[in-house]
């Protein structure tokens, strides 16, 4: 437990150092209106979209353990990272209520993470918030989500306003539409898509796909060892 907390503190500090640095500039949310395809803006960046449930343990572990590496090895400099917290949720047609696979707490976290993405378009900021939420979820402490704002030094008012006003629900409905139009449909979570290509069971190998899809110059060092890796 102590080592996990140490890693958490280190990663949060690292992410904070990124989003307060003026030298980092990343793509902004939200996606285009149809929500289906997202194009890089003024760059040949690769679109990496993650479809997930906030209380899915495999999703939380992937975000905290695997996805964090894109920040550690500079892959984020060639990626338009999109986080889509919906996945296995659905809308009850009888009363239009959102139903989540892991219950009301997951619906709450889905909405809060959608709001964080909307409030802080900078990927370093909203990823840091989501990382913190998901770290707590792994430890079974997801109800302590408010502590993440204090840890990160962020004002939670805008996110709470987004949630209370119902704007978060509207954001989720857009994610629902996007997720519902995935081709092929997602079969499990986490579900990763690189430039509209679903990685399916090979999702943990996402970095190799990203490097192979990148057509620009100045690829990060991490790609040099991955680009020649065979993809089955």
Task: Give a verbal description of the structure.
The chain has 232 residues and is α+β, with helices and mostly antiparallel strands. It has a single domain (2-226), classed as Glutaredoxin, CATH 3.40.30.10. 47% of the residues lie in helices and 10% in strands. The chain has 10 helices and 6 strands, in the order αβααβββαααααββαα. The chain has helices at residues 2-19, 57-67, 69-72, 104-119, 123-138, 147-152, 157-165, 167-180, 206-213, 221-226, and strands at residues 46-52, 79-85, 90-91, 98-99, 191-194, 197-198. Helix 4 packs antiparallel against helix 5 and helix 4 crosses helix 7 (157-165). The N and C termini lie far apart (37 Å). The model is unreliable at 20-42 (pLDDT under 50). GO terms for molecular function: oxidoreductase activity, acting on a sulfur group of donors, disulfide as acceptor.
Q: What features would you highlight for this structure?
A:
single chain, 232 residues, alpha+beta, Glutaredoxin, four-stranded mixed sheet
Distance between the termini: 37 Å
Total helical elements: 10
Percent range for helical residues? 40-55%
Radius of gyration: 17 Å
Estimated structural class: alpha+beta
Strand content: 5-15%
The CATH architecture can be given as 3-Layer(aba) Sandwich
Protein name: Gamma-interferon-inducible lysosomal thiol reductase
Pfam families: GILT (PF03227)
GO molecular function: oxidoreductase activity, acting on a sulfur group of donors, disulfide as acceptor
Family: Belongs to the GILT family.
